[in-house]
């Protein structure tokens, strides 16, 4: 489905991503972990073409998308929607408009300038918000919502693009544990129910272990681990994070409660599950 071949990115002589080759044969929930500066964001941003590649190929269904330009590049960007740590919504616009903005890459310029959405598009945006448990927020300004709600709006905007892949760059790093859980549960649900691929940069090991089918560990721009979460031993984690014998897993914990029934119930209620 997606293959990265010898993907490399240099910034002024410094190699942020160094000759990374990875295959993603089927949709799954992939977590990328590593210390700050390991190259996780640069890797995701290259896949989405927000950052140009210095060398290498990004093959999606056999076609190299790393060299696309103009409309073809925008079409690829709608196939692999990004979700960011800071949500990147338009704060003063209402929630429904923010979700509809997911269609901007596909619209004629004039229709986009005047926000000319069809009834079918509006109905779809509201249905997505409903699915994510935030339909009642549709008319509010995005800035009036909590961080967790804003991130779900960002996910709804991504879904509006009907992407094959969702690239999430530290999607829960700005959220408290309860909201972090709701957002991760939302991404997981989208992955399993829709069969979309989710690739998420995660800053904590426990989240990667809990949600991912596959974990990729990066260090200094290179892939140093690629396996199942149960293969992520403390020793391997040490290697990924470059920590010495004093490495303590708790230091990489978001503290999403591992077994908190009340939180799980709350999350399910919020998701309308
Ligand atoms: N636009 C840029 N210009 C110059 N250097 C950059 C740029 N973007 C990233 N880098 C450098 O590339 C390296 C990898 O950064 P990147 O943000 O990809 O790492 P990361 O693993 O996502 O870290 P973090 O979790 O802190 O975001 C770092 O040394 C960073 O300073």
UniProtKB/TrEMBL annotation:
Pfam families: ABC_tran (PF00005). Keywords: ATP-binding, Cell membrane, Hydrolase, Membrane, Nucleotide-binding, Translocase, Transport. GO terms for molecular function: ABC-type phosphonate transporter activity; ATP binding; ATP hydrolysis activity. PANTHER family: AMINO ACID IMPORT ATP-BINDING PROTEIN, PHOSPHONATES IMPORT ATP-BINDING PROTEIN PHNC. Residues 2-245 form the ABC transporter domain. This is Phosphonate ABC transporter, ATP-binding protein PhnC. SUPFAM superfamilies: P-loop containing nucleoside triphosphate hydrolases (SSF52540). NCBIfam families: ABC_phnC.
